[in-house]
Amino acid sequence: MANKLLHIQQKIDSIQFGLLRLRDEDNNNSWQVRTTTNDDETLNCIITDHAPLKKLVNKNVNLIQKYHDDYLYITGKVDEEVNTKTKILSIRILKACWFVRKTTKGGVSWLQEKYIYENYPAEAV
Asked: How distant is the alpha carbon of residue 32 from its chain centre?
């Protein structure tokens, strides 16, 4: 597993909470989630809101996390519905970005890349 992904996964685990987003032709949907990472390129999301879990399987989703000056943006594909009672989804990470907000004394701020991990399958390229 890539060292960059390991650092990003540690940050995902430390933040724990985020916003899971699904964009399709008709509308945009967002759900509050609690996240945990696995030993591979996947993570689990426990959805705390009402969500149509069956419709999310095989869809590309985005996970957004923020804590102080750290911003995480993860793109993944929902592999499966792990548990229907507790609403847990398994998501395969395709791309994960960790940015840190930097600010000058004059108040100008920007996002600086800390780590980026990409794992696109051959058929997606």
From this structure: 12
Confidence category of residue 32, pLDDT binned at 50, 70, 90: very high
The 3-state DSSP class for residue 33 equals: strand
Query: What's the number of domains the chain is made of?
Result: 1
User: Tokens representing 39?
Assistant: 């030993």
Residue 54, SS3 per DSSP: helix
Is 88 within the bounds of a domain? yes
The whole-model pTM stands at 0.88
Residue 125 belongs to some domain of the structure = no
Write out the residue range of the structural domain in which residue 85 sits. Answer: 3-120
CA dist 92 and 104 (Å) reads 37
Q: Is residue 53 very low, low, confident or very high in pLDDT (cuts 50, 70, 90)?
A: confident
Q: Who has greater pLDDT, 105 or 123?
A: 105
Residue 4 belongs to what H/E stretch? helix 3-15
